[in-house]
């Protein structure tokens, strides 16, 4: 987690008396998840702690206050209490974010802020844009990866038009379309013939039923006459 620049603290004049003793002893910024020297109680931010740990190559870190190698542990609650009155402007204030926060909510907001600048995810594009404008950029970015509709190979948008002019899959797809159309017409012809045959069979069956019904009526009349 990156530390908070004191220039972001909008009420610095009111809180500096309590904050100055609890700044990172290396960068003089407000640490997030601060680490505390077990001997002198001075603080390091996560960034400075990581840098010093790489230099020391061991569990102990050189403390600028003690001038010795010491362990640094998570800070106690008293340190966090000294941060509670801060009014912090968003890190992305210069890009248009007007949100103000307290210490607890700061990190979560910064991670989600729509005004943070992010790199374009397209390989080869070095444009950075506001997170909120990412969609607009991707609509025009020449490096967005697309899939060729003819051969299913992938190219960036910048190269796709040239590729599709030369794509061998284009001719294959046209042949496939002609073949599919021919198959469709053949199957449609068979279907029409089957429907016609079915309709004829149905008509014959209806006529047979009428003949049988008439035969029964005639037989009934004969029986009545004989009686």
UniProtKB/TrEMBL annotation:
Molecular function as annotated in GO: zinc ion binding
Annotated ranges, domain TRAF-type: 109-160
Taxonomy, superkingdom: Eukaryota
Zinc finger (TRAF-type): 109-160
InterPro entries recorded: Znf_TRAF
Keywords attached to this entry: Metal-binding, Zinc, Zinc-finger
Keyword Zinc-finger among record annotations: yes
Record-given protein name: TRAF-type domain-containing protein
Source organism (scientific name): Paramecium primaurelia
């Amino acid at each position: 987690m990156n530390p908070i620049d004191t220039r972001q603290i909008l009420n610095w004049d009111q809180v500096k008396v309590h904050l100055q003793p609890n700044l990172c002893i290396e960068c003089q910024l407000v640490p997030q998840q601060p680490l505390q020297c077990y001997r002198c109680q001075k603080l390091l931010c996560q960034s400075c702690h990581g840098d010093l740990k790489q230099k020391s190559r061991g569990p102990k870190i050189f403390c600028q206050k003690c001038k010795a190698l010491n362990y640094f542990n998570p800070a106690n609650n008293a340190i966090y209490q000294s941060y509670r009155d801060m009014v912090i402007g968003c890190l992305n204030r210069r890009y248009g974010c007007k949100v103000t926060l307290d210490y607890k909510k700061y990190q979560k907001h910064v991670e989600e802020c729509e005004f943070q600048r992010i790199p374009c995810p397209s390989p080869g594009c070095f444009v950075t844009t506001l997170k909120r404008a990412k969609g607009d950029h991707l609509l025009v970015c020449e490096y967005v990866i697309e899939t060729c509709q003819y051969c299913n190979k992938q190219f960036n948008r910048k190269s796709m038009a040239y590729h599709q002019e030369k794509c061998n899959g284009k001719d294959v797809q046209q042949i496939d379309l002609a073949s599919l159309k021919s198959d469709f017409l053949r199957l449609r012809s068979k279907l029409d013939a089957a429907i016609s045959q079915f309709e004829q069979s149905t008509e014959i069956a209806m006529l047979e039923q009428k003949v049988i019904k008439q035969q029964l009526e005639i037989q009934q009349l004969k029986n009545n006459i004989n009686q």
